[in-house]
Amino acid sequence: MDRYQAWPTIVALSGTMAIATGCATWNSARPLEPGRKQVALSLFGPPVLLGGSPLPLPMAVVEGRASVGRIAGKAADATIGLNVTPLAFGIVQGHIGASWLMLGAAGLRPSLALSARQYIAANPLTAEGKRVSDTALWTANEAGVTAAWDIGDHLVYASLSQTTDFGLPKVLLTPAVGARMDPGERGGWQLQLEARWWGVNLPKQADAVDWLTGNGALGFTVGVGYAM
User: Fold this and answer.
1) Cys-Cys with 22: which of 7, 37, 142, 156 at CB 3.0–4.6 Å?
2) Are 13 and 45 in contact (CB under 8 A)?
3) What is the 3-state secondary structure (H, E, C) of 20-55?
């Protein structure tokens, strides 16, 4: 298949992978403190082999977060977001979620944050010629835990999440490691770099795309956020 003729197919399949295993949203390693809000843009995608060379498949998620105060004395926030790229293929996908700081950091001990996101997707914008099942509403839940360490004003973290499709529930794990840099005023502009292995225990099921990994899809994320 020609490199350019293949592009719509592989981007659509990449979108399917992202919907099936959860997107690379701004990591909830540290929920926002009371009174804070944040907007973020995350660019991500698993590379595939196309023409013998690895080609990253770009996806984009925009989202907003806002503190909801404290629960049991610990910071908590809520988030809402939209996966922009699938809109070009008639797919509407977004999420709502929340995170809570279960344990604060102390010395070498990391903080622990719990998060949950509900992904909702539908394929109605280009419904002509599609089966009803292909345009129906679809939803899945992602629950995760993130350990994070402070390094000055910056943050490094490791997370593990489980994505559950309630129509076909099974174990579907996604580990990630990342770093969040705060180069200017603390809590203002932030840069996040992350490596994520979507569905690490999920055998490859799409033969039309030659993923770099046998299981799931290994990919990378660059995110920019601004807290107010």
Assistant:
1) 142
2) no
3) HHCCCCCCCCCCCCCCCEEEEEEEEECEEEECCEEE
Q: Measured between alpha carbons, how far apart are the two ends of the chain, in Å?
A: 47
Query: Is 152 buried (19+), middle (13-18) or exposed (0-12) by CB count in 10 A?
Result: exposed
Burial class (CB in 10 A: 0-12, 13-18, 19+), 175: middle
pLDDT in tens, 60-70: 999 999 999 99
The whole-model pTM stands at 0.82
The token pair that represents 85 in the structure block: 């790229």
Report, at the CATH architecture level, how domain 3-227 is classified: Beta Barrel (2.40)
Buried b (16+ CB within 10 A) or exposed e, 53-76: eebebebbbbbebebbeeeeeebb
Q: How does DSSP classify residue 187?
A: T
Q: What is the mean pLDDT of residues 121-139?
A: 67
Dist. CA 225–CA 58, nearest whole Å? 18
Domain regions of the chain by residue span: 3-227
Instruction: Enumerate the H helices of 22-166 as residue ranges.
Output: 132-135
